[in-house]
Amino acid sequence: MRAPTADAIVLTRDARGQEILAEFECSLVSLGLKHGDMVFANVAASARPSAEPNESNNTAVGTTQAPRESAMRVQQDAVDCELEHESGLIPRPRDTMCTHGARAMCEYCLPIEPYDAAYLEEHNIKHMSFQAYLRKVLSDHKIRGDISGAVPANFALPLEEPEYGVRPKCPGAHAPWPAGICSKCQPSAVTLQRQPFRMVDNVEFASRSVVDTLLEFWRVSRCQRFGLMYGRYEVSRDVPLGVKAVVEAVYEPSQGCEEDGVRVNVGPELDAEVARADAAAAACGMQLVGMVFTDLTPAAEPGKVLYRRHADSYFMTSLECRLAAYMQEQRPSACRWARAGRFGSKFVTCCVSGNADGGIDITAWQVSNSAQAMHRADLVVPSSVPSKMCVQEATATRYVPDVFYRYINEYKLSVTANAKPAFPIEYLLVTLTHGFPLEPHPAFRATEPFAVENRQHVHNVQTLGALKRHIVGALDSSERLALVLADFHLLVYMFGLDLLGAEEVAMIGRVVSEPMEAAQRAEELMAMSGWQTLVLMLREAADS
């Protein structure tokens, strides 16, 4: 940018530029100026640069405003939008120390914030909910209560995910990594500590049949099983501003099953399978919420299983931890208060294993945002010891910063230790609760379940003949047809035939999601041309 010439400068007596002085050739005496007078200099409007910024200005402005503009366009989950309308304040009853009337409040009975440390400790809440954590962060910026309104103007978005990789497009005057690096693009040292919040607080299985269907494979084959959980996110009232993942069905992708684990080939074939399951879930108003796997070994006593996952061994292996980080990274949680428009993930991980009594129990987990960041930067790799995660060695193309973690030693002192070569994976885990509803109302309520996909190992195969027996036998009654269609495995197989149009798929989704009007929706479905074509094909299919 060129400096303005003397002719382009205007001298004024006031800062607003209303009282303009004469030209430069005049003397100070003729202008009436004396020692101590203040003069203001401005560039004339005609000499100012064009309003259209140059390329360098575009880069600078875009760097500053892009995160905020992208965050403003974020489409958050419905449960987050619902919770933003709530104040989150926890009411307290009248205390014995209160001396005021019934319509007044004091420090002993005022509602407390959802992130109150004393309340969380009293109710044994190890991790506050994400919305409670968000209110705590926003309280530092004097934003409290209902946060559903627009983000204030000129407000710096407070949430930012950790980044442990080399910063791309560094403004420093050096060659890009790995040819060069400086203090501006070099990541800082990493100190691992327990994450104070969790994105999901509870995992609720819509009915026990969801888990029993998964366990049925293990009971028959004694091989482990892996599945993807589909359902929805709802508000949880067990914790302040909590979120729960309601699991309605489990889809079992193609996998190799062994007695001590499973093998899932990640690639285009798996992506195609998951896409079909996603489409069936979306038609019913659901989405992918997590994954589940079994780790069961029969005990010597009949009807019992070994208790393998406990405090003296491990709760989650380093391999499972990295898989959870990969899955969470693929499914980020949208957040309009984050600079990148995303923050963490609501994807949960469940393990079905033995408990201390020899019975079968479920544990639910997520990995922390730091675990996702370490996975993105390729800093960690699973170890042969299940409870330890290894830190990668630095290479010519991989920069590995110093990694530390803190623990309490035998003298009850906080000690910082080097995480290389390995560290406990507990620093990357966030525990969740789980349970079943007292009065279950599952969306998939079929009384005669359809065959589960990819179970050829136990001679359980999905065929057109099986679909024919389910569908054609229920065409005489809309109530029976509505009940038959309320089966997730049947829907995935039927939608995979590509015989139904978008209207038929949407109507079947309404049969599942609107149980009070399911029979009426089934009648409307039977009148559609795409459905009639499917029925005609099934009638001609073999019964095998």
The stretches of 5 or more residues where confidence is low (pLDDT under 50) are: 50-64
- The fraction of residues assigned to DSSP E strands is 15-25%
- In terms of structural class, how would the helical and strand content be classed? alpha/beta
Shape: globular
Rg is 31 Å
Strand order of the largest sheet: 6-8-7-11-12-13-19
**Biggest β-sheet, characterized?**
7 strands, mixed, barrel
Beta strands, count: 19
Question: What quaternary form is this?
Answer: single chain
Note the total helix count. 14
Mean of residue pLDDT values: 87
The span between the termini is 80 Å
Measured as a percent range, the helix fraction is: 25-40%
Distinctive features:
544 residues; alpha/beta; seven-stranded mixed barrel; three-stranded mixed β-sheet; 19 strands
Overview of this protein structure:
By secondary structure, this protein is of the alpha/beta class. It has helices spanning 55-72, 78-84, 117-122, 130-139, 208-221, 268-283, 318-330, 369-376, 464-471, 478-485, 488-495, 502-513, 518-526, 529-540; strands at residues 9-12, 40-43, 128-129, 190-192, 197-198, 202-205, 226-236, 242-251, 256-258, 261-263, 287-295, 348-354, 360-367, 380-382, 388-391, 403-408, 414-418, 422-424, 429-435. The strands form six sheets. Strands 6-8-7-11-12-13-19 form a seven-stranded mixed barrel, surrounded by six helices. Helix 6 crosses helix 11 (488-495) and helix 7 packs across helix 8 (369-376). The chain starts with 8 loop residues before the first strand and ends with a helix. The model is unreliable at 50-64 (pLDDT under 50).
